[in-house]
Write a structure and sequence with these properties.
Distance between the termini: 38 Å
Shape: globular
Helix content: 40-55%
Structural class: alpha/beta
CATH architecture: Alpha-Beta Barrel
CATH class: Alpha Beta
Number of domains: 1
Bound molecules: ligand PBG
CATH superfamily: Aldolase class I
Length: about 325
């Protein structure tokens, strides 16, 4: 036999030499949920190991994340109040601007990314403004732009719109440029699917829609060409990094986006991807560390440059 692939699998050393895909803490982004109050660490039931954190606790956790070698965090807000206009989301002293200022002040050398979306701040839980039973696209753009500006003014290093309204990257880019934030990058949730895998997150962010669902703005899981169109539009509007979300069920989409556009590409390994492994591990059915590292490596192999994952800090530890 001339070809014997097993020759290059004979030892850990030789396997290391021929390994095609690498993953390191530098590729990871840790999501956090910020809430009002002090000394608050509220466990999120459906996401074991994750917490809603008051800003003082968030600072402590972010220091651990940075010390583990993870360069960036992404923040989600649980505001004091919600209303139809998402007022708390554009407040310069709201939960996210407050958290951003604290992190920039107290954690050295950390990239602070903010999620920009209305669903965390609206009483109806939709990602845009509501007009009757419709989600009104264009009126939402201005609010998203104002939210981005509030985050930028607080010192955010990057904004990440996750609402899936048409034209929001352009609206946000325009508002940032006009206010002198032309160097602030935008990471767009460009191909974001209407996914059942967000279930546990809606517990975490207390943001399930009160009526209907998100299928009129998030993408149909059956579509991949449409994802390429979404990414193309966001790049044309000024997105610096494009994201595919969720990750594991959409590895083909990650691959196609990376191949077609060659842009810095992020993948969001979402709450359901995390919680299903946690649940199986708690039952002794899967080895969490090995499974998580295999999933994260696969997402990199598919073409993602960076991965947003609830495992980020812990996985950085596993990577040594
Ligand atoms: C807000 C948003 C969601 C997630 C990130 N940003 C929820 C949703 O769209 O329903 C999901 C993240 C996760 O499940 O880990 N629009």
């Amino acid at each position: 036999m001339k070809d014997r692939p097993r020759r290059l699998r004979a030892s850990a050393l030789i396997r290391g030499m021929v390994r095609e895909t690498t993953i390191s803490p530098a590729n990871l982004i840790q999501p956090f949920f910020a809430r009002p109050g002090k000394s608050q660490r509220r466990p999120i039931k459906s996401m074991p190991g994750c917490f809603q954190l008051s800003v003082d606790e968030l600072v402590k956790e972010a220091k651990k994340t940075r010390a583990a070698g993870v360069p960036a965090v992404i923040l989600f807000g649980i505001p004091e109040t919600k209303d139809a206009a998402a007022t708390s989301g554009t407040d310069p002293n709201g939960i996210i601007p407050t958290a951003v200022r604290a992190l920039k002040d107290r954690v050295k050398d950390l990239l602070v990314i903010t999620d920009v979306c209305l669903c965390e701040y609206t009483d109806h839980g939709h990602c845009g403004h509501v007009d009757g039973d419709r989600i009104a696209n264009d009126p939402s753009l201005q609010t998203l732009a104002r939210m981005s500006l509030a985050h930028a003014r607080a010192g955010a290093d990057m904004v990440a719109p996750s609402d899936m309204m048409d034209g929001r990257v352009g609206a946000i880019r325009g508002a940032l440029d006009e206010a002198g934030f032309e160097d602030l990058p935008v990471m767009s949730y460009a191909a974001k699917y209407a996914s059942a895998f967000y279930g546990p997150f809606r517990d975490a962010a207390e943001s399930p829609p009160k009526f209907g669902d998100r299928a009129t703005y998030q993408m149909d899981p059956a579509n991949a060409l449409e994802a390429l169109r979404e990414v193309e539009l966001d790049i044309a509007e000024g997105a610096d990094i494009v994201m595919v979300k969720p990750a594991l069920p959409y590895l083909d989409v990650i691959r196609r986006v990376k191949e077609k556009f060659g842009r810095p590409t992020a993948a969001y390994c979402v709450s359901g991807e995390y919680s299903m492994i946690k649940a199986a591990a708690a039952n002794g059915w899967l080895d969490e560390k090995r499974t998580a590292l295999e999933i994260l490596t696969s997402i990199r192999r598919a073409g993602a440059d960076m991965i947003l994952t609830y495992w980020a800090t812990e996985a950085a530890g596993w990577m040594g």
